[in-house]
Amino acid sequence: LSSLSLPSSMHLIQVDSVQRWMEDLKLMTDCECMCILQSKPISIEKDEQNELMLSSQYSTCDNLQLLLKRAWIISTELTRIAQKLEKNRWQRVHSMTVRVNCHVRSMINEYNTFTRNPSEEMHQFEKLLIDKCSEFTAFTERCIQTEDEEILKSMKSCINETLTTVAQYFGQLIELVLTHEAQNLLRQIELSDSVHVTESAISSLFSLTQEGAHLCRIIAKEGGVVTLFKICRQDCFRCLYPQTLRTLASICCVEEGMHQLEKVDGILCLADILTDNSHSEATHAEAAAVIAQITSPHLTFTQHLSSFLENMEEIVTALVKLCQEASSGEVFLLASAALANITFFDTMACEILLQLNAMKILLAACSDKRIVDTPYSRDQVVTILANMSVLDQCASEIIQGNGIQLLMEMLFEKSSSGSSAEVAACERVQQKSAVTLARLSRDPEVADAAVKLSCIPRLIKLCRSPTERNNSDSVLVACLAALRRLAVMSPEGLEDSDFQQLVKPRLVDSFLLCTNMEESFV
């Protein structure tokens, strides 16, 4: 839909499509009723449980969810109108325009029943949007009353223009509404001394952050990071630290959130929380989640993390301790994810990890299926091992901790659920374990241990069998590199055909050979 600029805030939590349809149906049927009654309010005398009529029993969070669902429907309908307009489906365009008109009025009425202190600017945009929707409906009604192609052609550009204006007004109104609600919640957190009220406001704020990056930007711009770190510096709100930190981690997925974090010395606050043994494990875990978020190698904006280096040693020390003492797989995952990201962020972190015996702690955790219980956790561990393996001292630590056996096992990583996220995690585990083997095998002792554990046959299998590596090119490249490194140390471990095809040619030629290889089932 190139002609329309629909709001990016319409990103709702992904759910099953049938469930989404069932939920939307409630709103759609309300809309059809409103069409019949020409937008007159529906009496609720005998229907007090009507989910579409908002009353005091609804929380701010529920109201905002309803508003966002209604807005998502309007956004979708506007897109569909543009598609039908292109095909000159005038009857459909008109019926959908009437429906949008009703949805817009319903959304505005619903919102005005629960919002506090709406601004004059919001009222102005509400009026502009309602007027433009009425004008839009009038235009499309005239189109279904004529069959003159010339008149319809001349009106089409006018309707397109009106549709674009409706979309713009709608986007601006939603932006104002969401900003207003974020301001209300943050003001509530700032002014309240009550744990219950503050908890409720933070919960609603967290729900907003789950609706996508656009809402996180709004919250950050309105000072959300500053407000939440104030909570994390007050002992009277200690019980709310996990929830507050979880919300901070969500906001810090956007650049605006990161800049705010830097301004309020957020990293120092996180370091204080992580190193304070009086805090609960849940608080430490959520602090680790914030660290994992702000050090993510996928983020393009990391220049703000200069202050991170100042606190890195104590943060890394606290995270290693959290990995060692983790009581659940989730806690270990958060702590190890933070460590994995930090090893990308600065090579000094790997040296600190070596000094802290982190290798031994991580390898021991992997033998406890209660703690390292998913491919996602193993992905974090092998990432740390791969990044640490550039250090020469790492080889002896790996051998002492039975790490080669673990890397061999990781070459067999398979998804149990078949979900795309888990399959991708398994691919990363296979790739990084091969990378780690390739790096460590420069040490003859490691290479010898790998050969004895039959790593070479497994690497050959991964190269030759696309299904074993889930057709992953990155796994193939890593396995070819590891195989070539081991072949140098132990050439007798390969058959001549494997040597001629997988080791002797240029890596790119072996890669092309393996990607075009048909599997033999003989």
UniProtKB/TrEMBL annotation:
Q: Which GO terms describe its biological process?
A: apical protein localization; asymmetric cell division; establishment of mitotic spindle orientation; regulation of asymmetric cell division
Q: Which GO terms describe its cellular component?
A: apical cortex
- UniProt-listed Gene3D superfamilies: Inscuteable LGN-binding domain, Leucine-rich Repeat Variant
Instruction: Name one molecular function that GO assigns to this entry.
Output: cytoskeletal anchor activity
Q: Where is the Protein inscuteable homologue LGN-binding domain?
A: 13-57
The coiled-coil regions, if any, are none
InterPro entries (UniProt xref):
ARM-like, ARM-type_fold, Armadillo, Insc_C, INSC_LBD, INSC_LBD_sf, Inscuteable
Q: Where is the Protein inscuteable homologue C-terminal domain?
A: 70-522
Q: Which domain of life is it from?
A: Eukaryota
Which protein is depicted? Protein inscuteable
Top-level taxonomy: Eukaryota, Metazoa, Chordata, Craniata, Vertebrata
